[in-house]
Design brief:
The structure is a homodimer.
Chain A lengths: L10 H5 L24 E2 L12 E8 L5 H19 L18 E5 L10 H4 L9 H15 L6 E6 L2 H12 L5 E5 L5 H8 L3 E5 L12 H9 L1 H4 L8 E4 L13 H14 L2 E5 L26 H8 L13 E6 L11 E6 H14 L5 H15 L2 H27 L2 H4 L3 E3 L7 E6 L7 H17 L2 E2 L1 E2 L16 E5 L6 H20 L5
Parallel strand pairs in A: 5-6, 5-7, 7-8, 8-9
Antiparallel strand pairs in A: 2-3, 4-10, 9-10, 11-12, 12-15, 14-15
Helix pairs in contact in A: 5-6, 5-11, 7-9, 12-13, 13-16, 15-16
């Protein structure tokens, strides 16, 4: 049993009510009234599905990430062989298409299967919360992976993590409220807290290699002495944290660490907004050798993955209902879906729903049916979906290790000029420039700019840490890093080449007296 | 040349800036810097499209609305014939699927065709504004149908009309600003103006049969004597109008009427927010006979449709850049796409874009690619899309006329107890209860509730006008109507049956002394 969390909901959110002009009369019917057994509708402005131009959809899937590249290579090989033995190889396939798929999902206009969203439903107006089977999927998935410690939680779909974070801010932050944020973070969050007219306060990150991200000593000190340290600010209403594979640093908080943060949240009565866009991509530790596809091949079972690889969410510690977990399908399925979900206390979800009726009328039904019907129509539900995640995770592991291997082999690393943090999850690596002597903050910032130009000149795009600082002055002394992301590369060769260019650039930067 | 519209943009919108942490350095590069010819990306957190599980999509279309019903009937017939001549008819089609489509669009992972949104683009992160070809389509479509009178207009995609309206409110309404609204309206708009902390003021509707909707004399009087009539309110900042096939009344403003309203907007310096979700569904006048599929068959050419059937938008009169036109694909393609667009002055579109970066990160790419690739890959672009609209329009005309015919043939109509307004566009009909003598306002409201229960009891759902009143007290005297919508019915027979039940219910209501 949780306490009420009403005092944690913003006044703005509390003031909204939900109603619709097509609702049935609210007063009691007159005597003698009985509902008609088969009422007809002249009420809703919903076009009948017969007006929809799409009659059915075939969604053709790959069995594993990058299968299409393997197929292309295989086709290329067989074409080459054909070309060697015959001159008539061009007729193979019309317009490069006409591929036959053994792994398709057909979406029809009407079906009675309750686990499927058909076109007559998916293309129609729908609840802001989301279509039933997909909403149920998000709950079943959370129960399987991060079962909440209280039982008053609910789920709602969003149009992605950004939408989820903006809605979380709206639900809990009053104008003038303070929100604590990891000092380097997914910076658009500040846009959302600004929109709620809240005040962002950065929390130091511990940059040691065995760090959990947040500098816990700093956070405790700050909270316990808030009125002395921040005399003009109210005590924090919320903490925003990317607790697994933090963006940009890649750090992951252990469960023991989370328990201590959660204790602080209880003691000081603040909300935890847990953003977890890629935490399911857990990554084994680098093995000190050049990785191959085989060396990171997953022999992890789903149960083993959940029990021993996945870091528990704050939800699993949350007895009060003060955790808002923001998820997205962007990294595990595709960003263009604009689809995600939020798990939180039912009162908070209700506030988010009422806001959703203002700022967007729910996620695309087409996106919803694509995910839902792939998951239920092909992968086989929650565990099938986790199976897909394990394949993603395997590929990301390989990429991470390839990038780390390239850096570890570099001259710059061997000379101790750079360091790198091996992430336990996600898609980001902190790449530190290890200035060999202490120096003033403003010099670090200036040198990092020179280093960035060098890196760009050598042909790699990276994100300087300072670009992601909530308060670049506050964080200047800890800005000596670039965020590296191994997600966008087209293939493994690009990752290796990127790592080489990057470390060559930094070596050149040092050889040139820490200048461009 | 338009004047600047900056004074019409809200302070809230002006205060927002757009920036992203992955942007390149803004300062000048150091001397000796040259951009790399083939830079690699370790920057963006965008998963490579090789991580997307969908490899291709087949979108199977109908040639005209409700074709699937005709096909089903035809299949039913041929199955019956088969059953009569043979006992082996069940093998015809496996699981009811395996239909062969001659009207499909294939969406592949990669294409070089600039008019197509492929999967590697459509499933990826994208600009808030929308994918290029679809954004270009919205502009070409507007140029063809409602060419704006000034040349500083732009387009931006939305997640549907509601999102568009909320964004329009955010862009122009400051807290305390007044927005004029047709007294009966799409009521969620008030939620959006509330969200902008604006003050809604209803404008009387003229309920005569040849009305243009808004009571122009009332509006002019109100504006010219604003400070006397509304001493505590600032002059209006905006007018919200559904000018074609108004919701709920069905009225359409003629172009001459719009010119007079636009003159008032110029004189009193307010914005016109033109909401037009179904105005393309222009409807011929009822022909005083039972309509058949043939009698409303469209022999209208696209040029004729645009020149003589489509009512000009306020955009076409707008020399100042004060018109915000909100469109949606919900009624013409499908609501579940959550896809629409806004046409307005470039400064207003920029404000809307900055807001879009807060409240949702653009429309679903899957929805965008579905519409774009159907339009460009199958229908043949703008005129092909208008061709589809003409087919929709033909079907809606038939439905409208069937409903009107049923009402005109009813005993209640013949006895002069009810009246109905023949709409020139859209999907709504005003169904008036003609109380035969004058009566106090509160009695009208009470009687309409009794009539509603009767209608529900007879098995039809309708929307009472009072449910859609901005201020139900202000509009009580004009609340003696139901909104009828012929869009949701499954077939023509349902429309006829609904009309019968409705008119029978009202006859019974009168026969029972205007009581349930």
């Amino acid at each position: 049993m949780t306490k009420s969390v009403d005092h944690l909901i913003s006044e703005r959110a509390k003031s909204r009510v939900s109603s619709h002009f097509t609702s049935a009369p609210s007063e009691a019917p007159p005597s003698g009234f009985k509902p008609h057994p088969k009422p007809l509708l002249l009420s809703y402005g919903t076009p009948n599905n017969g007006f929809f131009p799409i009659d059915s959809l075939d969604i053709n899937l790959v069995h594993y990430p990058f299968e299409h590249q393997d197929k292309k290579e295989a086709r290329g090989e067989s074409l080459k062989r054909l070309a060697a033995s015959s001159s008539n190889s061009a007729s193979n396939g019309k317009n490069g298409k006409a591929e036959s798929y053994d792994n398709s999902v057909e979406v029809v206009r009407h079906t009675q299967d309750p686990s499927i969203v058909d076109l007559s439903t998916g293309l129609q107006y729908a609840n802001v919360e989301g279509h039933k089977p997909l909403l149920q999927f998000t709950k079943d998935f959370i129960k399987r992976t991060h079962n909440p410690a209280h039982d008053q939680w609910e789920s709602i779909l969003t149009t992605g993590a950004s939408d989820g974070l903006n809605k979380a801010c709206d639900a809990v932050l009053n104008p003038g409220d303070v929100v604590l944020i990891e000092e380097f973070t997914f910076l658009p969050f500040v846009r959302f807290s600004d929109h709620a007219q809240a005040i962002p306060v950065p929390v130091k990150i511990d940059f040691s290699n065995e760090s959990n991200g947040i500098d816990l000593g700093y956070l405790r000190e700050l909270l316990d002495n808030w009125h002395d340290l921040k005399p003009n600010l109210p005590k924090p209403k919320a903490l925003y944290t990317i607790a697994t594979g933090q963006n940009p640093t890649g750090y992951t908080q252990t469960v023991e660490f989370r328990k201590q943060v959660y204790e602080l949240a209880e003691k000081h009565d603040f909300i935890i907004i847990e953003d977890d866009p890629y935490g399911y991509l857990t990554l084994p530790k680098y093995q000190h050798q050049r990785p191959t596809n085989d060396s990171v091949k997953s022999d992890v079972t789903i149960d083993d993955y959940i029990a021993n690889h996945l870091t528990p969410s704050y939800l699993e510690l949350d007895t009060t209902g003060r955790v808002i977990r923001v998820e997205t399908f962007s990294k595990l399925f595709a960003p263009g879906l604009r689809l995600g979900f939020i798990i939180a206390h039912a009162s908070i979800i209700k506030a988010i729903k009422n806001y959703g009726e203002v700022v967007n009328r729910g996620a695309s039904g087409l996106s919803q049916l694509a995910v839902n019907n792939v998951v239920y129509g092909k992968l086989g539900g929650v565990d099938g979906w986790i199976g897909w995640i394990l394949k993603m995770r395997q590929r990301y592991s390989l990429r991470k290790d390839l990038l780390l291997h390239t850096i570890y082999q570099s001259e710059a690393y061997k000379q101790g000029l750079v360091d790198v943090i091996d992430p336990k999850a996600g898609m980001f690596v902190t790449f530190k420039i290890k200035f060999l002597d202490a120096r003033p903050e403003n010099e670090i910032v200036a040198k990092m700019k020179q280093a960035l130009w060098k890196v760009i000149n050598f042909g790699v795009a990276v994100v300087p840490g300072s670009n992601m600082a909530v308060d670049s002055k506050f964080s200047a002394a800890r800005s000596n890093f670039f965020r590296l992301c191994y997600a966008p590369a087209n293939d493994d060769a690009e990752i290796v080449e990127s790592g080489k260019r990057l470390t060559d650039a930094i070596l050149d930067f040092y050889n040139n007296g820490e200048k461009f």
